[in-house]
Amino acid sequence: MIAPAKIVIESAPGELRTATLDANGTPIEFRVERTHQRSLKDGLYLGRVRALRADIGAAFVDIGHADDGFLNLKESGATQGLHEGDALIVQVTRDAVPGKGPRLSAYPTLAGRYLVLTPGDGNLAISKKIGDAETRARLRDVLETQADDVAGFVVRTDALHAADEALLAEARALRAAWTQIAATAESAAAPTELYAAPDLAARTLFSAFSAATSDVVVDDADTLAVLAAFADTHLPEARPSLSLVRAPAFRTLEIEDAFADALAPMVALPSGGRIVIAETAAMASIDVDAGQAGGGNPERVALHTNLEAAAALARQLRRRNIGGVIAVDFMRMKDDAARAKVLAVLKRALTDDPAQPRALPFSAFGIVEIERRRDGMSLAETMLSRTLIETSETRALAALRALALTGGGPVALHVTPDIKAALQGPLKPALQATSQRLGFDIPLVSDLHRGADVDFEIKSKTPKI
Q1: DSSP H helices in 84-240
Q2: In the structure, what pLDDT confidence band is assigned to residue 465 with cuts at 50, 70 and 90?
Q3: pLDDT (tens digit, 9 = 90+) per residue, 236-276?
Q4: Residue 321: helix, strand or coil by DSSP?
Q5: 276 near 299, Cβ under 8 Å?
Q6: Banded pLDDT at 66 (limits 50, 70, 90)
């Protein structure tokens, strides 16, 4: 897995932007968080059940935000004895996305660097990635006294080389935090926030920092101070190197253009091919085509382009934080061995992604489906609008249709500047045909503003005296 060599945090009024870079300075991930749209993921709430839906096995829970949370009753084991109006502790496991509220769990956890506290189960589980029997026994000996009816623990892979004292200190800190949360929930009225999720800067530092990270740069002194305090509490042994750079950080570190490229729908491939990325509310689709790739044997061109695209799109999914279902339409290949080669390269490229994407085999129509864990909104969902706005030509032709219905005497057409440009440009023949049909010239008056209540108005033409 590619570990970030540098973490960049840019703070501006109303917005935080973060980037992780590899050893060559190439961006691995970009993230954006708006002050009014802060992530709720991992936050704990005393929620109130607003509705139970037996038909879909879910409860909708008010957690005090605009959208009710979605609680899968089967996954949460909360099918028995839950009624509308009940209060319960829930945790946000996935942020809201357009059209869907946040996803909730009734099994809250508190995560540290080495341990995850699981309230009330008393178990001590150790990551399967820690395979050495002697190490597993040592970890169990150190922590078994910390697991009881109040809290159990999951030992994370990062605990492999942690000192015993660090493990015990984190276990005690997590227990103290949960005790405070539980006490607050006992006396609070739902809905109430019990534990606020860290902001984007802290989450990025906590999740992305590793032994391979050489530097964490921030362009705001206040943010730097907050992160230093966060690191002292949550990363005491790692002691990340925090430094202040000139604002704005993305421009100072020369990654602003790369950020803009991560919002572009088209990605050029080295040999002239390209991938085109389109996101919808339901899924994302990626089309691979030869673009300006050289001629030659079509099968060889398709294979070479697809191999380049497989590696590139894996990087783009992570960089843009595209999750859910992704359908990839590779260039058509008749050879099964070529398809297998492309799929192998794609799967290998996806192994670097901590979101654990999974690629399915080619379908009969040459489509590869990728399932990638969704973690909040993608970069495009945060930064771009999906509003489908009619083109200037569409609105100009609507004005001509309205003119054809007037049937009266000479009139003038009052329009926005872009409609006038369309009628004087590519649609000039249509304007002339409308004039001939009506029997009079149609003056264009550009006195309306784009975004007003109307795009055009038909007014009687004042005769000259």
Answers
A1: 133-143, 164-187, 200-208, 221-234
A2: very low
A3: 777 788 999 999 999 999 999 999 999 999 999 999 999 99
A4: coil
A5: no
A6: confident
Residue 374's nearest CA partner among 38, 41, 16, 32 is: 41
Burial class from Cβ neighbours inside 10 Å (0-12, 13-18, 19+) for residue 155 reads: buried
Place of tokens 């942020």: 95
269/204 Cα distance (integer angstroms): 29
Question: pTM of the entire structure?
Answer: 0.80
- Cα–Cα distances (Å) from 446 to 167, 395, 442, 458, in that order, read 72, 14, 13, 12
331-388 pLDDT per residue, tens: 999 899 999 999 999 999 999 898 999 999 999 888 999 999 988 789 998 888 766 6
Say whether the peptide bond before residue 429 is cis (omega within 30 degrees of 0): no
Q: CA distances (Å), 300 to each of 304, 305, 342, 366, in order?
A: 6, 8, 12, 16
CA distances from 61 to 48, 101, 192, 401 (A): 5, 10, 12, 50
304, amino acid identity: H
Which of 30, 1, 6 has the alpha carbon at shortest distance from 319?
30
pLDDT reading at 421 higher than 70: yes
On whether the CB atoms of residues 370 and 317 are closer than 8 A, the answer is yes
Both tokens assigned to 138: 């040592």
For residue 157, the 8-state DSSP code is G
Residue 292's contacts (CB-CB under 8 Å, 6 or more residues apart) are 272, 273
Q: Name the residue with tokens 């159990």.
A: 152
Smallest Cα–Cα separation from 192: which of 49, 63, 40, 36? 63
Rounded to the nearest 10 degrees, the angle between the axes of helix 392-404 and helix 417-424 is 80
The whole-number pLDDT of residue 77 equals: 61
**CB 60, CB 50: distance < 8 Å:** yes
pLDDT digits (tens, 9 = 90+) for 293-330: 667 788 899 999 999 999 999 999 999 999 999 999 99
- C-beta of residue 372 within 8 angstroms of C-beta of residue 357: yes
* DSSP state letter for 351: T
Q: Which of the pair, 456 or 176, is modelled with greater confidence? A: 176
Question: Which segments within 316-415 are labelled E, that is strand?
Answer: 324-329, 358-359, 367-372, 411-415
Residue 235, number of CB atoms within 10 A of its CB: 16
From residue 70, alpha-carbon distances to 53, 67, 150, 308 in Å are: 10, 9, 27, 39
CA dihedral 40, 45, 50, 56 (to 10 degrees): 60
